Amino acid sequence: MKPITECPIGCEGTIVRIRAKEPIKGRLFSLGLAKGSELKVLDHTLAKQTWEVESDGTKIALREEEAASVYIEPKECKQ
Asked: Domains in the chain: how many in total?
């Protein structure tokens, strides 16, 4: 289990935990990020301040703080 911010581009896995306080937690749930959802890391900015992920067919841009609070169990991570 590791946060999205520690996953390489192309990494896929299942969300196992979201460690965030409101209102961030509510925002993540409203975007469709919830425990058990499938997630793929698509890209990030050079400074790793913004992460682009895909969850259940929806592309989502997350700030670093938000991405660091979403933990996944990686299934396949391409280096």
From this structure: 1
CATH code at position 62:
2.30.30.90
Chain-centre distance of CA 20, in angstroms? Answer: 12
How confident is the model over 44-62, as pLDDT tens digits?
999 999 999 999 899 999 9
Q: Which of 42, 46, 48, 41 is nearest to 63 (CA)?
A: 48
Longest dimension (CA), the chain: 33
pTM (2 decimals)?
A: 0.90
Residue pLDDT, tens place only, 26-46: 999 999 999 999 999 999 999
